[in-house]
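Support request, please re-run this one:
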Amino acid sequence: MPRSLFRALGALFLCVALAGAVGCGAKPGSAAPAASTPAWAKGMATVRADALPPQAREVLALIDKGGPYPYRQDGTVFGNFEKVLPQQKRGYYHEYTVRTPGERDRGARRIVTGGSGEFYYTDDHYETFKAVLR
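Re-run finished. Output below.
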C-alpha cells in the first residue's frame, strides 16, 4: 500500500474517531451537557432558556426585570402540592403564567422560580417540569 494512501486512511480514521468521541452522550435536541447542569437540576429533564417557546422567554425577561406581570396570579406562591419539584418550605417557589397562543384563559404553561435562583418550566400544568438552564 502506498505510504500516501496509508496516511490518508489514517487521517480519515482519526477524524471519524474524534467526531464520534465528541458527539458521545449528546442526543439530538438535548439540553446542555451533564457537566454544565447545576446541582439543583441533577436527575431532571432540562431545557436551555433559548430553546423555550418565545412566550416563556418573554416571561423570563419580565422576571429578570421584576415585572410588571400581565396576570394577577404572577409572582404568587407555588405550593408544589404535586410534589414534582424538590420539597421546600412554603413560599420557596413562585409561579408565573406563560401565555399560550389561542388560549382564552391562562392555559397550562408556567415558569416556576425557586428561592435559590432555580427556574423550572411546565407546559402541562405542573404534571412535569424541566429545569431551565440559563
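The radius of gyration is 21 Å. Helices lie at 3-23, 54-65.
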